[in-house]
Amino acid sequence: MASSSSSSSSDDGHENLQGLGDDRSALQKHVAFFDQNKDGIVYPWETYRGFRAIGCGILLSSVSAILINLALSRKTRPGKFPSLLFPIEVKNIHMAKHGSDSGVYDNEGRFVPSKFEEIFTEHARSSPNALTSEELMAMVKYNRVPKDYSGWVASWTEWKILYFLCKDKSGLLHKETIRAVYDGSLFERMQEDRASAQKKS
User: What is the pTM of this model?
Assistant: First the structure.
């Protein structure tokens, strides 16, 4: 879970989630997990390995790697000739931010605490700090921008995968889990938990 002690807020209500010497935006941190060699570039095979590391199957990881890198590569490489390796530049990931989302990332990829809290004040009905599958899908539908079909698909897919991987035994997706996904700390935790489980088996 993201630690509040490592976060910094600005006067405009945005939060950079900065640690010592780390001025990356929350969205950059979210994506950086998949940059396995930490060179600032995410290739499809790194996306695949990242999905596998957090517990996704071969098929889902493969499809996700292809679609994500195809969709985001050109958007994060403005002015550059298209590459058949479909790299994603982490520093420009805010340029690939899709529509019909929750608004928790602003246009620069910064975390907006008020929009995060709005997820639960507006859509959590069964529990104040968690969402059911129905509540989650209601939120996704609520956030849809008319005729933004690619944004609809992207948002639906992201939340469905998160729910599938992280819901508890009661079918709830908890606030702390959603909070952690926004800066990528959830991915690190899932990787560690999966590696630990494999050692025990």
Answer: 0.85
